[in-house]
């Protein structure tokens, strides 16, 4: 009686090799063609606003227009989790570098339709469409609200 525990079947090894080869081929194709790479946009900014974000004691997040100091939006706990998560991730980078919350974040809509969020203090940039349409649109609504508030 033989014990086959710990032996990986030949078909599983071949399957894993094929998945790896296909993944590498797609990565190479994307790298060569530049298809959907989240690099620097190849267009000019269409609209850009600077915002400042503060955590409130009740767990909400207040978003201010950095240029005017006006409150643009309050994100309540449990709502717009992506906005809260993205801003907290950038804030964490600032904490690691001993940077306060005063420098603004820059939200930019590019001519090619991409939307990015940049930390002006660290240079860290997030291309928001990489996180899905719903998450991108949450920041697009924030951009529209900021621009709209300035024109009122």
- What is the 3D shape? elongated
The radius of gyration is 22 Å
Q: Residue share in helices? A: 25-40%
Largest sheet: 6 strands, antiparallel
Integer tally of domains: 2
Strand content: 15-25%
First-last Cα distance: 83 Å
* Low-pLDDT runs: none
Category from helices, strands and their pairing: alpha+beta
Count of separate DSSP helical elements: 3
SSE string, helices as H and strands as E:
HEEEHEEEH
Number of DSSP E strands = 6
Roughly what is the average pLDDT, rounded to an integer?
A: 83
Spatial strand arrangement across the major sheet: 3-2-1-4-5-6
Characterise this structure:
InterPro entries: PuhC (IPR017495). The chain crosses the membrane at residues 12-32. This is Photosynthetic complex assembly protein. This protein has two domains: 1-37; 45-151, no CATH class. The chain is elongated. A six-stranded antiparallel β-sheet has the order 3-2-1-4-5-6, covered by helices on one side. The protein is built from three helices and six strands; from the N terminus they run αβββαβββα. It has helices at 10-33, 81-96, 133-151; strands spanning 45-55, 61-65, 71-75, 105-110, 115-119, 125-127. By secondary structure, the chain is an alpha+beta fold.
What is this structure, in a nutshell?
The protein has 152 residues and is α+β, with helices and mostly antiparallel strands. The chain has helices at 10-33, 81-96, 133-151, and strands at residues 45-55, 61-65, 71-75, 105-110, 115-119, 125-127.
